[in-house]
Design brief:
This protein is an all-alpha fold. The chain contains 11 helices and no strands.
Length: 298
Protein backbone atom coordinates (compact mmCIF):
# COMPACT_ATOMS: atom_id res chain seq x y z
CA UNK A 1 0.00 0.00 0.00
CA UNK A 2 1.34 3.44 -0.95
CA UNK A 3 2.00 5.87 1.89
CA UNK A 4 3.64 9.21 2.62
CA UNK A 5 5.42 11.09 5.39
CA UNK A 6 3.03 13.37 7.35
CA UNK A 7 5.98 15.49 8.52
CA UNK A 8 7.31 16.03 5.00
CA UNK A 9 3.83 16.94 3.79
CA UNK A 10 3.25 19.37 6.67
CA UNK A 11 6.58 21.14 6.11
CA UNK A 12 6.41 21.28 2.30
CA UNK A 13 4.91 24.76 2.27
CA UNK A 14 7.79 26.15 4.31
CA UNK A 15 10.25 24.40 2.01
CA UNK A 16 8.67 26.12 -0.99
CA UNK A 17 8.91 29.56 0.60
CA UNK A 18 12.52 28.93 1.63
CA UNK A 19 13.77 27.48 -1.65
CA UNK A 20 11.78 29.73 -4.00
CA UNK A 21 12.04 33.30 -2.64
CA UNK A 22 11.27 34.83 -6.04
CA UNK A 23 8.07 32.84 -6.26
CA UNK A 24 7.17 33.99 -2.74
CA UNK A 25 7.79 37.59 -3.82
CA UNK A 26 5.54 37.19 -6.89
CA UNK A 27 2.79 35.64 -4.75
CA UNK A 28 3.09 38.45 -2.20
CA UNK A 29 2.84 41.15 -4.88
CA UNK A 30 -0.13 39.37 -6.47
CA UNK A 31 -1.79 39.14 -3.05
CA UNK A 32 -1.25 42.85 -2.51
CA UNK A 33 -2.71 43.77 -5.90
CA UNK A 34 -5.76 41.53 -5.44
CA UNK A 35 -6.51 42.68 -1.89
CA UNK A 36 -6.08 46.36 -2.82
CA UNK A 37 -8.21 46.16 -5.97
CA UNK A 38 -10.94 44.21 -4.17
CA UNK A 39 -10.96 46.70 -1.30
CA UNK A 40 -11.27 49.66 -3.68
CA UNK A 41 -14.01 47.98 -5.70
CA UNK A 42 -16.03 46.89 -2.67
CA UNK A 43 -15.77 50.26 -0.93
CA UNK A 44 -16.68 52.11 -4.13
CA UNK A 45 -19.77 49.94 -4.63
CA UNK A 46 -20.80 49.01 -1.09
CA UNK A 47 -18.80 51.24 1.29
CA UNK A 48 -21.65 53.30 2.82
CA UNK A 49 -23.85 50.20 2.94
CA UNK A 50 -21.19 48.23 4.85
CA UNK A 51 -20.89 51.06 7.38
CA UNK A 52 -24.68 51.12 7.81
CA UNK A 53 -24.82 47.34 8.23
CA UNK A 54 -22.09 47.43 10.87
CA UNK A 55 -24.05 50.06 12.81
CA UNK A 56 -27.26 48.04 12.52
CA UNK A 57 -25.50 44.86 13.64
CA UNK A 58 -24.02 46.56 16.70
CA UNK A 59 -27.17 48.39 17.70
CA UNK A 60 -29.98 45.82 17.70
CA UNK A 61 -30.90 42.14 17.96
CA UNK A 62 -34.28 42.67 16.30
CA UNK A 63 -35.04 39.85 13.79
CA UNK A 64 -36.71 42.34 11.43
CA UNK A 65 -33.57 44.44 11.37
CA UNK A 66 -31.47 41.30 10.85
CA UNK A 67 -33.62 40.44 7.81
CA UNK A 68 -33.28 43.99 6.49
CA UNK A 69 -29.52 43.76 7.00
CA UNK A 70 -29.39 40.48 5.07
CA UNK A 71 -31.35 42.01 2.18
CA UNK A 72 -28.89 44.89 2.06
CA UNK A 73 -25.81 42.68 2.17
CA UNK A 74 -27.02 40.10 -0.39
CA UNK A 75 -25.59 42.02 -3.39
CA UNK A 76 -22.28 42.27 -1.54
CA UNK A 77 -22.03 38.50 -1.12
CA UNK A 78 -23.28 37.92 -4.66
CA UNK A 79 -20.10 39.66 -5.83
CA UNK A 80 -17.65 38.55 -3.15
CA UNK A 81 -18.40 34.81 -3.14
CA UNK A 82 -17.66 34.03 -6.82
CA UNK A 83 -14.60 36.29 -6.83
CA UNK A 84 -13.38 34.73 -3.60
CA UNK A 85 -13.91 31.26 -5.04
CA UNK A 86 -11.72 32.06 -8.05
CA UNK A 87 -9.05 33.68 -5.87
CA UNK A 88 -8.84 30.52 -3.74
CA UNK A 89 -8.66 28.43 -6.92
CA UNK A 90 -5.77 30.55 -8.23
CA UNK A 91 -3.75 30.33 -5.01
CA UNK A 92 -4.34 26.61 -4.48
CA UNK A 93 -3.58 25.98 -8.16
CA UNK A 94 -0.27 27.83 -7.86
CA UNK A 95 0.84 25.69 -4.92
CA UNK A 96 -0.32 22.48 -6.64
CA UNK A 97 1.62 23.53 -9.74
CA UNK A 98 4.87 23.95 -7.76
CA UNK A 99 4.53 20.40 -6.42
CA UNK A 100 2.85 18.53 -9.27
CA UNK A 101 4.18 20.43 -12.32
CA UNK A 102 7.40 22.02 -11.09
CA UNK A 103 8.69 22.77 -14.60
CA UNK A 104 5.66 24.96 -15.38
CA UNK A 105 7.11 27.94 -13.51
CA UNK A 106 6.04 30.90 -15.68
CA UNK A 107 4.48 33.86 -13.87
CA UNK A 108 5.48 32.46 -10.51
CA UNK A 109 3.25 29.40 -11.13
CA UNK A 110 0.19 31.68 -11.12
CA UNK A 111 -2.48 31.14 -13.77
CA UNK A 112 -6.13 31.86 -14.44
CA UNK A 113 -7.30 29.15 -16.81
CA UNK A 114 -8.84 25.72 -17.11
CA UNK A 115 -7.06 24.29 -14.05
CA UNK A 116 -8.35 27.08 -11.84
CA UNK A 117 -11.86 26.90 -13.30
CA UNK A 118 -12.04 23.18 -12.55
CA UNK A 119 -10.82 23.77 -8.99
CA UNK A 120 -13.47 26.46 -8.49
CA UNK A 121 -16.21 24.14 -9.79
CA UNK A 122 -14.95 21.36 -7.52
CA UNK A 123 -15.07 23.68 -4.50
CA UNK A 124 -18.62 24.69 -5.40
CA UNK A 125 -19.63 21.02 -5.67
CA UNK A 126 -18.14 20.31 -2.26
CA UNK A 127 -19.86 23.29 -0.68
CA UNK A 128 -23.21 21.91 -1.86
CA UNK A 129 -22.31 18.38 -0.72
CA UNK A 130 -21.07 19.68 2.65
CA UNK A 131 -24.31 21.59 3.24
CA UNK A 132 -26.40 18.53 2.38
CA UNK A 133 -24.25 16.15 4.42
CA UNK A 134 -24.24 18.52 7.41
CA UNK A 135 -28.03 18.82 7.26
CA UNK A 136 -28.53 15.04 7.20
CA UNK A 137 -25.88 14.44 9.86
CA UNK A 138 -27.35 17.12 12.14
CA UNK A 139 -30.86 15.75 11.67
CA UNK A 140 -29.85 12.16 12.46
CA UNK A 141 -27.65 13.19 15.40
CA UNK A 142 -30.46 15.41 16.73
CA UNK A 143 -32.99 12.58 16.59
CA UNK A 144 -30.63 10.14 18.27
CA UNK A 145 -29.71 12.71 20.93
CA UNK A 146 -33.39 13.39 21.61
CA UNK A 147 -33.90 9.68 22.11
CA UNK A 148 -30.89 9.51 24.42
CA UNK A 149 -32.17 12.40 26.51
CA UNK A 150 -35.31 10.37 27.14
CA UNK A 151 -33.11 8.21 29.33
CA UNK A 152 -33.20 9.80 32.74
CA UNK A 153 -30.08 10.92 34.55
CA UNK A 154 -26.47 11.52 33.51
CA UNK A 155 -26.36 8.38 31.35
CA UNK A 156 -28.75 9.91 28.83
CA UNK A 157 -26.77 13.17 28.74
CA UNK A 158 -23.53 11.26 28.26
CA UNK A 159 -25.01 9.29 25.36
CA UNK A 160 -26.19 12.55 23.79
CA UNK A 161 -22.70 14.05 24.06
CA UNK A 162 -21.14 10.93 22.57
CA UNK A 163 -23.58 11.04 19.65
CA UNK A 164 -22.61 14.66 18.99
CA UNK A 165 -18.90 13.82 19.11
CA UNK A 166 -19.46 10.85 16.80
CA UNK A 167 -21.20 13.14 14.28
CA UNK A 168 -18.26 15.58 14.33
CA UNK A 169 -15.78 12.71 13.98
CA UNK A 170 -17.72 11.32 11.00
CA UNK A 171 -17.71 14.71 9.29
CA UNK A 172 -13.94 15.05 9.80
CA UNK A 173 -13.37 11.49 8.55
CA UNK A 174 -15.29 12.15 5.33
CA UNK A 175 -13.49 15.47 4.84
CA UNK A 176 -10.11 13.74 5.21
CA UNK A 177 -11.05 10.97 2.78
CA UNK A 178 -12.04 13.56 0.17
CA UNK A 179 -9.21 16.03 0.85
CA UNK A 180 -7.08 14.97 -2.14
CA UNK A 181 -9.78 15.82 -4.68
CA UNK A 182 -8.26 19.24 -5.37
CA UNK A 183 -4.78 17.94 -6.28
CA UNK A 184 -6.36 15.05 -8.23
CA UNK A 185 -8.52 17.46 -10.24
CA UNK A 186 -5.51 19.67 -10.92
CA UNK A 187 -3.11 16.86 -11.83
CA UNK A 188 -5.49 14.91 -14.06
CA UNK A 189 -7.14 17.96 -15.67
CA UNK A 190 -10.61 16.56 -14.97
CA UNK A 191 -12.96 17.20 -12.05
CA UNK A 192 -12.38 14.33 -9.62
CA UNK A 193 -15.02 14.37 -6.91
CA UNK A 194 -14.55 10.96 -5.29
CA UNK A 195 -11.21 9.57 -6.54
CA UNK A 196 -9.66 10.81 -3.30
CA UNK A 197 -11.70 8.24 -1.37
CA UNK A 198 -9.72 5.40 -2.95
CA UNK A 199 -6.34 7.15 -2.70
CA UNK A 200 -6.70 7.91 1.01
CA UNK A 201 -7.67 4.39 2.10
CA UNK A 202 -5.48 3.41 5.06
CA UNK A 203 -3.92 6.90 5.32
CA UNK A 204 -6.49 8.84 7.30
CA UNK A 205 -4.32 9.19 10.41
CA UNK A 206 -1.33 10.33 8.35
CA UNK A 207 -3.47 12.92 6.61
CA UNK A 208 -4.89 14.12 9.90
CA UNK A 209 -1.39 14.41 11.36
CA UNK A 210 -0.08 16.32 8.34
CA UNK A 211 -2.98 18.78 8.32
CA UNK A 212 -2.95 19.35 12.08
CA UNK A 213 0.79 20.03 12.13
CA UNK A 214 0.50 22.36 9.12
CA UNK A 215 -2.39 24.28 10.69
CA UNK A 216 -0.59 24.61 14.02
CA UNK A 217 2.53 25.90 12.31
CA UNK A 218 0.44 28.31 10.22
CA UNK A 219 -1.29 29.57 13.38
CA UNK A 220 2.07 30.14 15.08
CA UNK A 221 3.34 32.05 12.04
CA UNK A 222 0.20 34.22 12.00
CA UNK A 223 0.47 34.96 15.72
CA UNK A 224 4.14 35.93 15.51
CA UNK A 225 3.50 37.96 12.37
CA UNK A 226 0.68 39.91 14.03
CA UNK A 227 2.90 40.70 17.00
CA UNK A 228 5.61 41.98 14.67
CA UNK A 229 3.08 43.97 12.63
CA UNK A 230 1.60 45.69 15.69
CA UNK A 231 5.08 46.56 16.95
CA UNK A 232 6.28 47.95 13.61
CA UNK A 233 3.05 49.81 12.88
CA UNK A 234 2.98 51.31 16.38
CA UNK A 235 6.54 52.59 15.96
CA UNK A 236 5.71 54.11 12.56
CA UNK A 237 2.53 55.65 14.03
CA UNK A 238 4.52 57.31 16.80
CA UNK A 239 3.37 54.90 19.47
CA UNK A 240 -0.34 55.36 18.75
CA UNK A 241 -1.67 51.85 19.39
CA UNK A 242 -5.27 53.03 18.90
CA UNK A 243 -4.68 53.91 15.25
CA UNK A 244 -3.00 50.54 14.69
CA UNK A 245 -5.98 48.71 16.21
CA UNK A 246 -8.35 50.39 13.76
CA UNK A 247 -7.00 48.27 10.90
CA UNK A 248 -9.00 45.36 12.34
CA UNK A 249 -12.20 47.49 12.23
CA UNK A 250 -11.57 49.74 9.23
CA UNK A 251 -13.71 52.67 8.21
CA UNK A 252 -15.35 51.57 4.94
CA UNK A 253 -17.37 54.74 4.38
CA UNK A 254 -14.90 55.93 1.73
CA UNK A 255 -11.70 54.88 -0.01
CA UNK A 256 -9.73 57.70 1.65
CA UNK A 257 -10.88 56.76 5.16
CA UNK A 258 -10.05 53.09 4.54
CA UNK A 259 -6.51 53.47 3.19
CA UNK A 260 -4.83 54.95 6.26
CA UNK A 261 -1.08 54.59 6.81
CA UNK A 262 -1.48 51.67 9.28
CA UNK A 263 -3.88 49.98 6.83
CA UNK A 264 -1.36 50.27 3.99
CA UNK A 265 1.29 48.68 6.20
CA UNK A 266 -1.18 45.97 7.13
CA UNK A 267 -2.01 45.25 3.49
CA UNK A 268 1.66 44.88 2.56
CA UNK A 269 2.34 42.76 5.62
CA UNK A 270 -0.80 40.70 5.07
CA UNK A 271 0.08 40.07 1.42
CA UNK A 272 3.37 38.46 2.40
CA UNK A 273 1.81 36.54 5.25
CA UNK A 274 -1.01 35.33 2.98
CA UNK A 275 1.50 33.99 0.47
CA UNK A 276 3.22 31.97 3.20
CA UNK A 277 -0.11 30.73 4.54
CA UNK A 278 -1.26 29.60 1.12
CA UNK A 279 1.91 27.54 0.66
CA UNK A 280 1.62 25.96 4.11
CA UNK A 281 -2.09 25.13 3.85
CA UNK A 282 -2.33 23.90 0.24
CA UNK A 283 0.96 21.98 0.03
CA UNK A 284 0.17 18.96 2.29
CA UNK A 285 -2.67 17.49 0.19
CA UNK A 286 -0.63 17.97 -3.00
CA UNK A 287 2.33 16.10 -1.50
CA UNK A 288 0.05 13.34 -0.22
CA UNK A 289 -1.56 13.00 -3.65
CA UNK A 290 1.81 12.85 -5.41
CA UNK A 291 3.08 10.11 -3.10
CA UNK A 292 -0.12 8.07 -3.03
CA UNK A 293 -0.97 8.36 -6.70
CA UNK A 294 2.53 8.00 -8.13
CA UNK A 295 4.37 10.09 -10.75
CA UNK A 296 2.30 12.80 -12.39
CA UNK A 297 3.41 14.06 -15.78
CA UNK A 298 3.59 17.75 -16.60
Amino acid sequence: MATFSPTDAALEGFRITREKPRVLLVWSLANLVVSTVMAIALIAMFGPMLTEIEAMNAGSDDPAQALAMFEKIAPFYALVLPVGLMVIAVWSGAVYRVILRPSDSKYGYLRLGGDEFRLAVLMLIYVVLAIGFTFVLTLVAGLLSAGALAIAGPVGKLIGVLIGLAAVALFIFVALRLSLSGPATFAERHIRVFESWTLTRGNVWRLLGAYVVALILAAVVVLLALIIFVAVAAIMAGGDITSVGKVFQPDTSSIASYFTAPMMIYLVFGAFLGAVQNAVVYAPPAVAYRELHGPVGD
